[in-house]
Design brief:
alpha+beta, Chloramphenicol Acetyltransferase, 6-stranded mixed β-sheet, 17 strands, globular, disordered C terminus
Length: 481
């Protein structure tokens, strides 16, 4: 039997939290975090720690009215229930079941102030426990979400908690220009309006639920990452120091390009970046939505890994400066277009979800504290990735399996199963078959002319098609983490 209690902090700070344009853009979306443990979590201790956590994150215990969040301290529901029909292995094999452990997301009820921004739960399984957090995306992005989960575990174990900065007025402001002036400036900066006609196939895939298909985790272990890194840096100038994100982004986008296209096809990277420390005035401890989708490298599908890695490094460098004028400009243009309700993007959004995409969208969570959520009983054995429609998702590997996991979604999931041969899969994992070439050393592209018109059974499919509004906002290609 499920038992739900409303958890409140000792002090309600009062006041309101205004929603930024980015917060409003992701109002339809919700972040679901699921941590799987072998057992030992105490619900009473979790509730006590959650009450203390709300002192640091008071807006998630408030209620939304008149388009803003009132920090009323009304509390967060914590539900303790039992599912003896489920095991840890079952939830690891089928993430749909893990997402079903969360309460339903009711956007209208949240916006009317009936539902809180956050809900927490503990589920006793046959051989372990599942901890769940369900949070309105309008309150925070993935970085803030997983940092909040870590803070909860630190509070429960008496460890210090990182400071939080909740003031949205720190975000860069944008020019107060007319709609025509804003659109003209965006066009001058290379922004384009998506073609409605070219978007029709994407909307059809959305309605059929194909954008929600996601592969099983593809492990790139520590030795694979080292091999890919060595291959990516081969022959590059001595003053170029590739970061891990440069290498992973270059490797994955290059492999997907080779899978789908002949060598001379030009492809484009789009990379989700954390604005903390890079946007002017936004500190590392800021809580909110400051993730931006930025252009990475353009490269031909037949390029070598060092070529793509160098192009990636150079393309991302301006975005990663501290502070970054380029990121400030992207932020301000995005918010200005949102204010005028203009749908534009810095890249061809329709080319992200086509049968043979030429735009590859990468969201890398590898550096986030996803697994650093230890309540004193040991780290989770698995953290189930959120169910947002990221075409290429990079996720930390579980404890004991050093490296990262990669998930391909939608058309890339289908393409990898239809066109990827053994050699392609071996190179993707960073371990070419015996006698094969090193990762990224070239070779003919892996392109198949087989049709994908026949429906294929997915390795696993997320619980139904993603929310239509969520995906439409994602297709805007603006600031969706």
């Amino acid at each position: 039997m499920a038992r739900t209690e409303l958890v409140r902090s000792a002090h309600a700070p009062g006041g309101t939290r205004e929603l930024s344009g980015i917060d409003r853009a992701v109002l339809p979306m919700v972040i679901r975090g699921t941590w799987l443990y072998e057992g030992g979590l105490d619900p009473a201790k979790l509730r006590e720690g959650l009450a203390a956590l709300l002192e640091h994150y008071p807006h998630v215990a408030g209620r939304m009215h008149d388009g803003r969040i009132h920090q009323t301290g009304e509390g967060v529901p914590f539900t303790h229930t039992s599912r003896p029909d489920l095991t840890l292995e079952t939830l690891c094999d089928d993430p749909r079941l893990a997402h079903d452990l969360h309460p339903p997301w009711r956007r209208a009820a949240f916006e009317r102030g009936q539902d809180p921004p956050l809900a927490a739960g503990l589920v006793d399984l046959e051989d372990g426990q599942a901890l769940t957090l369900t949070c309105a995306h309008a309150c925070m992005d993935g970085e803030s979400f997983y940092t909040m989960a870590r803070a909860w575990s630190r509070i429960c174990t008496g460890r210090p908690v990182e400071p939080t900065v909740l003031d949205p007025s720190l975000l860069p402001s944008f020019p107060d220009r007319s709609k025509d002036e804003a659109v003209r400036a965006a066009r001058d900066a290379g922004w384009v309006k998506p073609s409605v006609l070219r978007m029709l196939p994407t909307l059809a895939r959305l309605m059929l639920g194909r954008l929600g298909n996601r592969s099983r985790p593809i492990l790139l272990d520590a030795s694979a990452l080292d091999a890919i890194g060595d291959a990516a840096g081969a022959g590059l100038p001595e003053d170029v120091r590739l970061g891990r994100n440069d290498v992973i982004t270059a490797h994955l986008t290059r492999m997907c390009a080779r899978l789908c296209h002949p060598p001379d096809t030009v492809c484009q990277q789009v990379v989700v970046l954390d604005g903390r420390g890079h946007l002017s005035g936004v500190p590392d401890a800021f809580v909110g939505n400051v993730a931006l989708s930025a252009l990475g490298a353009r490269f031909p599908a037949g390029a070598s890994l060092p070529e793509v890695a160098l192009a990636t490094h150079r393309a991302l460098a301006p975005w990663l400066a501290r502070p970054s004028p380029a990121l400030d400009a992207l932020w301000c243009t995005s918010l200005e277009l949102m204010r005028h309700r203009v749908l534009m993007a810095t890249y061809d959004v329709s080319a992200t979800y086509t049968r043979r995409p030429t735009v590859f969208y990468v969201n890398n969570f590898a550096r986030m504290p996803v697994y650093d959520v230890d309540f004193g009983t040991g780290p989770p054995v698995r953290v189930v990735p959120h169910d947002l429609p990221d075409p290429i998702l990079v996720w930390p590997a579980p404890p004991g399996r050093k490296g990262v996991e990669v998930y391909l979604a939608g058309v890339l999931d289908r393409a990898s199963r239809a066109w990827g041969d053994d050699a392609w899969w071996a190179e993707l994992r960073g371990h070419p078959a015996s006698g094969g070439k090193a990762p990224g050393s070239g070779g003919p592209p892996v392109v198949r002319e087989d049709s994908l018109a026949t429906p294929m059974q997915s390795v696993h499919t997320l619980a139904g098609p993603p929310c239509t509004e969520c995906t439409v906002f994602a297709l805007k290609g603006l600031l969706v983490p």
